[in-house]
Amino acid sequence: MVQHRLPMLPPSDEVDWAASVNGNAISTRVESNAILLDVIRDSLGILGTKRGCDMGTCGCCSILIDGSPRLSCLMLAQEADGCEITTVEGLSEGHHLHPIQETFTECGGSQCGFCTPGFLVVISALLEENPDPTDVEIKSAIEGNLCRCTGYQQIVDSVKEASGILCRGDTVENSTEPKSDPHPGFTG
Ligand code: FES
Ligand code: FES
Fold first, then answer.
1. Cβ(76)–Cβ(36) under 8 Å?
2. Among the atoms of ligand 2, which is closest to the Cα of residue 148?
3. What is the residue extent of each domain of the chain?
4. Of 48, 72, 17, 68, whose CA–CA distance to 188 is shortest?
5. Residue 179 Cα, ligand 1 centroid: separation in angstroms?
6. Judging by beta carbons within 10 Å of its beta carbon (0-12, 13-18, 19+), is residue 176 exposed, middle or buried?
7. Which residues are CB-neighbours of 135 under 8 A, at least 6 positions away?
C-alpha cells in the first residue's frame, strides 16, 4: 500500500528509562529520541504540564529537574534519566497546596490557566532558593514564561503573597487549608 504522508520522526530504538517523578520511582522504556514532555504527558499520563509552543518560547512545559526549572519540550527524556522530576502535581504536600498555588487563586494570578503550571513550578523553585525575592528578582525568574491573560502584575502579587507566607516560617502543610483532592484525576 502507498503511504501518503511522511513520518515525522525516523524510527528509533527503545531504551530503559528511570526517574523519580513527583516522588514516585518510575521505570519504563522510551524511544531513544523521545522528548521529555511527550513521555510525561503521553506515556506517564501526567497532564498538568502543558504543551504550548513546542519550541522553547512560552514556558508552558516548565518542570523541575533536580530542583532547577527546565523546558521539557526541549529536553530528550534520556537527559533526565536518573533525575528527580517535579511537575505541578508534585508541588502540593498531601492535601495541602503549595502557598504559590493558593495565592495564585487569591490574587488572580491565573485566568484561562494554560500557562499556570509552568509559572507555578518556576516560582516554587525561586521561592525555595529565595523566599523573599524583590520585584526585579521575581520578574527575572518568570521572564521565560508567557501569559496572554493576566498582564503579569497579578502574578507578581501572587509571588509576594506566597513569599509572605513562607517568610512567616509557615510550612506548606500548615499554611494552606487542606483540600479533599488537590489534583483530581492524578494518581501518580
Ligand atoms: S511548550 Fe515548551 S516552551 Fe513552549
Ligand atoms: S492565564 Fe491564560 S495564558 Fe496565562
1. yes
2. 3
3. 14-90, 99-174
4. 48
5. 30
6. buried
7. 156, 160
Q: Ligand 1 pocket by C-beta < 6 Å: which residues?
A: 51-54, 56-61, 71, 73
pLDDT at 186: 59
Cell of 127: 521561592
Q: CATH: 1.10.150.120, 2.40.50.140, 1.20.1730.10, 1.20.1070.10. Which one for 99-174?
A: 1.10.150.120
The residues near 5 (Cβ < 8 Å, ≥ 6 apart) are none
Say whether pTM exceeds 0.85: yes
CATH superfamily of 14-90: Beta-grasp domain (3.10.20.30)
Residue nearest to atom 4 of ligand 2 (CA): 147
What residue ranges of the chain have pLDDT lower than 70? 1, 3, 9, 170-174, 182-188
